[in-house]
Structures are given as structure tokens and as C-alpha cells.
């Protein structure tokens, strides 16, 4: 279904163009090619039978060296690189852990030079290697052609010096689909199929010419009411496209689209009623469209109103008011029933859902009746006079699909640790989602995971979620790990891992999410970093999109103050090695990892071997949070 070539979305819409074989280099033998820059073309063929990849790099404005690499988030951090130098005629297998000169692979030189040529002001080299070399200083070329898969992030650089050095402006990056297709494919993005389908229409969810405030952090919530949505009884949203206004793209930190069940106004009327019922003594407005509004929520979110709806309360929203002899108005009947349906951040891609899955909307659907688009603006220099209409294009069909998409949010989804300081330097924070959450709230015995969206801010270094399942003997086995080894908010605002069917969640499954930070990277000073909503503050949230939807409480949140989750622990770290990365770090030069780090079907790893987790799940979230505060005091 998804026969596409390449796409990239970096602070705006930037589509990589397919290129024909250039006059002075015959690339006709390659299955695919792309121009990341006017000065460089990349050609490649994946041979699935031989399990190899053949690559050609044509640098049209360099005579000294050229290189190409792949990385998790698109930058030098954690990149696997190969480069050719004309002075020596050598091809070098290398890697990089930071933005700097690549380090020669100390394990094995896995690339084979096939040919090289220097012409009049340009050079080209061809090379080949195995898709999976078994070398921990190489990255695996993984299939990125299936539906929902994230394209491979590619970077390239070139220069005229005799040896590899600082590239300056001679650098380009993008996202390309390495697997599948042929040389006849047009350049396209992940939603090309729905764009060209006669059965698919679209609408835009975006603020209208919003004046960006001059404060550093602003969360603007724009409701697309029922009257503004398509006037249909039932329809499915099936794909999403980030739309960035070119002259204001640099100020958009992220976009979150949230759907509201029942409420035709994103819960505004209910929120206003709650404000009247629980008006603060100083008469302040509790709307979330203020500096420091809530992540991924609107004015009617459980923690965005005056109603005390954290997990310490044992009564429902309606029961709370009935106990006070207060009648809840009909427009509050679906209070708190909402779910995030699309998350966009710079460096992430557009999204098409699996063919039989969608988000249900419509007047009589029982699905979402209104949508809220939350825009996080980051304006550190206080620039004035900028008006923005960036948002999300929603593609929908009236041909209903049989399965509804849902979301589960792990870590600290309500940013409950807001204003809590991070240690000066390196640290690690762990959060838990116990098995009681899925055991209590799942109607289905098992659901399918579509993807994970991992989100931290500028100090984030590594993020990992472990999923555990009861082995039938009282132990919880590690069954799946989702992670980003080298997180870099400079390259992308989130890291997406698509599994689409290769992982499931069963009733009783539990999760731990660990975020690791280094405040020496902070834009406000290492000693001044706290958790919070600002881009200079920190977060730890993993959005898991799954199907079929289980209509979980609190918008699918399971973490601090949600679904019995909480803080599991905190640790100060001393060195980069404490981030427990493997790529480019290990001394053994093998790809064998422990079950905990490899993260799939690891029967040897069980919860019994991890004494910290079980007892803390039994402690209330509030006590865990207070304990953390005491520890860090």
C-alpha cells in the first residue's frame, strides 16, 4: 500500500525529491535515489535475498571527501556513518556519539568499497555492507516500508579537505524509505495514498492567525466545535498531516490534537460551570490557554479544572457533586472523556493509520464530537508581531472502519512533577504503570500496539519503556522494550517507534518508563532545570497508540496521579556510561545484549529480579511523589 520514496518534516514542510541519474554518474542500476540537497545525490538498493545494501553518494560540489549515515533522530548523536576520502582512497566505517568528527569503528570495517571517482569539482563513491553486521558500532538497516513505519533518518556531508573535517554548510539530512519500491516511484509522504483517494476528504484543525505571545512558553488551545466539523452522523479520521506556516514554524514546539466524546465545545461550557462552582478566591481564570497550560489537554481535562479528580479520590465526577447535593448539567455528562489522537513535533512525520483502524467522529457516532488543537509556542527571544495558523490536516472517510484507535500515556502524562528540580548534571527518573490499570479498565483480553511516541525536552538523553507480563507463576517477564538511545530535541521534538502488530498489551500487563537527562545541555543553566511545560523545562511522556480502543479514564493516562501509577525512583548519574547505551559504547564488539536491553521475548528477565518496582506500586502516587520531593530536597 505504501510505495513511497521519501519525506521529511523539519520546522516546515520539506519533501525530498526523487532525482534522475545525473549526467556524469549513471545511477540506473540502483532501485532508489534521492536528492537531500542540490549538491548531493544518494542512490541505494536493498537486496533482501542477500541481506545487503548498496549505496552510492554523489557529492557534486566536493573533491576531498563525502559521507552518509543513519541515526535515530537525524543528527550526529548516535549516528552510523561511512565516508570516503580521495587523498587516501580509503573508505571508512565510522560512528559518532556527539556532534563532531566521526570515530573509526573499532570492531570491524563492514563497508566494502565498490568504486570511487573524482571529477571536475565533484566525487562519487559506491559501497556495500550487510543490513545487519552484528557490530555494536553499526546500526541495523530495518524494514521501513510497512504501513505506519517511520522513514529512516539519513544525514550526509561533504568537503574539499584531504581528510574528514567540519562540514560547515555542506550538510543535509532528511527521512527516506530505504526498503521497497522501484526507481519509478515518485517522491511522496506517508499520507500520499489518502491524498489521492476519491473516498477521502479533509479538514484543518488550526488557530486562525493567532498572535504569538512574546513570552517564552505559551500553550494555545483552539477548539474545533461540532458545528465546525463535517456535518455527518459518522465518519473515521484515518490520517494526519502537520501543517506549518513557513514564517512562524520555528516557534512551534509541538502540536497535539485531542478528541472529546459528547462535548460539542471541547468541554468549554463544563469548564466554565466548574469555574463558577470552584472560583478561586482571587478570581483568577483557570483556562489552560495561558502561559504554562497543560500538555495534551484542554480546559476540561481532569487536572485542568478546579475539580479534585486525582487518583486519591474514590468517587466519580458525578458522585462527587451528588454528595454535595449539586445537580451536574447535561453538558458535563462526558466530563474528562477525551483522548489525544495525533502528536506532531519538528522532525516527526505525517501519519496514516492501519487500513482497518480509525478514530470515530460524527454527530450520532458515539465518538468524538469536537477537537482541540493545542499548540505549544516557544519564543525564547520574545519576538513580537508574529501571527500563526499552523495546525493539523485531518483526512477522513465515510466508509467506516471496524476498529477504533486508542491511546495510553505513560510516564508523567499530567506533568505532575511540575517545578520539581532536576539534579545538576546527569540523572534518571523512573515511572510506573501497574498491571491493575489494564486489568481493571480493559474490556478486551488483548489489544494491538500501533506505535510509541517518546517525548522529552532539551536535556533528554535516553528514554526507555519496558513492558512486563505475568508468566503464570507469579513473575512478571519483560516482553517488550521501546527506546531511543540518543535523544536529541535539536533534531526532533519526539521519537516515534512503530511496531504495528508485533507487540500487544494484555490485561494485567505493566510498564515502567525511564527518562535520563543531562542538565549541562540546558539553555537556562544546569542548576535551574525543573520539570514543567516550558521547552526549557523537562518532561517524560510515552504516547502509546493501540487498537481497539478501551476508553481508558483520564484520557488514557497511566503514570503520576493516574490509574494507580506513580514515581518509581530517581538516581543521580556520574558519567555518560551510566546511560547504559550500547551503540558505540561496548568493548566486546558483539551485538549480544542482555534480555533487559534487547527487549523482545526475553524470558530470562522477570520482575522478581527488580525489587524496586513491586513494593512501590502498592504505595499511593501521592506518597511516591512526596518521597521524591524529600529525596531531592
Automatic annotation (TrEMBL):
Domain DOMON: 38-159
UniProt-listed Pfam families: Cu2_monoox_C, Cu2_monooxygen, DOMON
Region ranges (Disordered): 281-311
Taxonomic superkingdom: Eukaryota
CDD domains per the UniProt record, alphabetical: DOMON_DOH
InterPro entries on file: Cu2_ascorb_mOase-like_C, Cu2_ascorb_mOase_N, Cu2_ascorb_mOase_N_sf, Cu2_monoox_C, DBH-like, DOH_DOMON, DOMON_domain, PHM/PNGase_F_dom_sf
Compositional bias (Low complexity): 285-311
SUPFAM superfamilies the UniProt entry points to: PHM/PNGase F (SSF49742)
UniProt-recorded Gene Ontology molecular function terms: copper ion binding; dopamine beta-monooxygenase activity
Keywords: Disulfide bond, Glycoprotein, Signal
Family recorded in the similarity comment: Belongs to the copper type II ascorbate-dependent monooxygenase family.
Protein's name according to its UniProt entry: DOMON domain-containing protein
Amino acid at each position: 500500500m505504501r510505495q513511497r520514496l521519501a519525506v521529511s518534516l523539519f520546522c516546515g514542510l520539506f519533501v525530498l525529491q526523487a532525482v534522475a541519474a545525473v549526467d556524469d554518474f549513471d545511477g540506473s542500476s540502483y532501485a532508489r535515489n534521492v536528492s537531500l540537497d542540490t549538491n548531493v545525490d544518494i542512490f541505494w538498493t536493498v537486496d533482501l535475498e542477500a541481506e545487503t545494501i548498496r549505496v552510492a553518494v554523489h557529492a557534486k560540489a566536493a573533491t576531498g571527501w563525502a559521507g552518509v549515515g543513519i541515526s535515530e533522530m537525524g543528527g550526529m548523536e548516535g549516528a552510523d556513518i561511512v565516508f570516503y576520502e580521495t587523498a587516501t582512497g580509503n573508505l571508512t566505517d565510522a560512528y559518532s556519539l556527539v556532534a563532531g568528527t566521526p570515530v573509526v569503528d573499532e570492531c570491524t570495517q563492514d563497508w566494502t568499497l565498490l568504486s570511487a571517482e573524482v571529477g571536475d569539482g565533484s566525487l562519487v563513491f559506491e559501497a556495500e555492507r550487510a543490513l545487519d553486521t552484528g557490530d555494536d558500532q553499526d546500526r541495523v538497516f530495518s524494514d521501513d516500508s510497512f504501513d505506519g513505519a517511520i522513514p529512516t533518518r539519513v544525514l550526509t556531508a561533504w568537503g574539499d579537505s584531504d581528510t574528514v573535517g567540519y562540514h560547515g554548510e555542506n550538510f543535509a539530512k532528511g527521512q527516506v524509505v530505504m526498503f521497497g519500491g522501484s526507481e519509478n516511484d515518485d517522491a511522496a509522504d506517508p499520507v500520499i495514498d489518502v491524498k489521492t483517494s476519491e473516498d477521502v476528504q479533509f479538514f484543518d484543525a488550526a488557530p486562525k492567525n493567532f498572535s504569538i505571545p512574546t513570552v517564552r512558553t505559551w500553550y494555545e488551545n483552539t477548539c474545533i466545535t461540532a458545528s465546525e466539523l463535517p456535518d455527518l452522523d459518522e465518519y473515521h479520521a484515518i490520517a494526519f498531516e502537520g501543517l506549518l506556516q513557513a514564517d512562524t514554524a520555528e516557534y512551534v514546539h509541538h502540536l497535539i490534537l485531542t478528541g472529546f466524546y459528547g462535548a460539542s465545545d471541547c468541554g468549554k461550557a463544563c469548564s466554565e460551570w466548574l469555574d463558577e462552582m470552584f472560583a478561586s478566591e482571587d478570581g483568577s481564570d483557570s483556562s489552560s490557554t495561558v502561559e504554562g497550560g497543560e500538555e495534551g489537554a484542554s480546559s476540561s481535562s481532569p487536572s485542568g479544572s478546579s475539580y479534585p479528580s486525582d487518583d486519591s479520590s474514590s468517587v466519580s465526577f458525578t458522585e462527587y457533586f451528588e454528595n454535595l447535593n449539586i445537580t451536574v448539567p447535561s453538558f458535563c455528562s462526558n466530563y474528562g472523556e477525551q483522548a489525544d489522537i495525533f502528536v506532531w513535533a519538528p522532525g516527526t512525520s505525517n501519519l496514516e493509520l492501519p487500513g482497518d483502524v480509525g478514530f470515530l467522529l460524527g454527530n450520532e457516532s458515539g465518538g468524538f464530537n469536537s477537537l482541540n488543537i493545542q499548540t505549544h509556542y516557544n519564543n525564547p527571544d520574545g519576538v513580537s508581531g508574529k501571527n500563526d495558523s499552523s495546525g493539523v490536516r485531518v483526512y477522513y472517510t465515510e466508509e467506516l472502519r471496524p476498529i477504533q484507535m486508542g491511546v495510553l500515556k505513560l510516564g508523567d502524562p499530567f506533568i505532575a512533577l511540575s517545578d520539581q528540580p532536576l539534579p545538576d548534571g546527569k540523572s534518571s527518573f523512573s515511572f510506573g504503570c501497574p498491571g491493575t490499570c489494564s486489568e481493571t479498565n480493559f474490556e478486551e483480553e488483548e489489544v494491538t500496539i500501533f506505535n510509541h511516541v517518546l517525548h522529552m525536552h532539551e536535556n533528554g538523553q535516553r528514554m526507555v519503556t519496558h513492558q512486563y507480563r505475568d508468566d503464570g507463576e507469579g513473575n512478571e517477564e519483560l516482553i517488550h522494550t521501546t527506546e531511543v538511545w540518543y535523544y536529541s530535541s535539536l533534531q526532533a521534538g519526539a521519537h516515534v517507534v512503530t511496531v504495528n502488530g508485533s507487540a500487544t498489551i494484555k490485561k494485567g500487563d505493566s510498564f515502567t518508563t525511564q527518562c535520563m537527562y543531562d542538565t549541562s545541555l540546558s539553555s537556562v543553566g544546569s542548576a535551574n532545570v525543573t520539570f514543567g511545560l516550558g521547552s526549557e523545562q523537562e518532561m517524560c511522556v510515552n504516547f502509546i497508540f493501540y487498537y481497539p480502543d478501551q476508553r481508558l479514564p483520564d484520557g488514557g493516562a497511566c503514570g503520576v496521579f493516574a490509574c494507580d501509577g506513580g514515581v518509581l525512583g530517581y538516581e543521580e548519574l556520574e558519567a555518560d556510561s551510566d546511560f547504559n547505551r550500547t551503540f558505540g559504547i561496548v568493548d566486546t564488539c558483539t551485538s549480544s545484549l542482555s534480555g533487559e536491553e534487547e527487549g523482545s521475548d526475553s524470558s530470562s528477565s522477570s520482575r522478581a529480579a527488580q525489587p524496586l518496582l513491586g513494593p512501590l506500586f502498592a504505595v499511593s502516587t501521592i506518597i511516591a511523589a512526596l518521597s521524591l520531593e524529600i529525596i531531592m530536597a
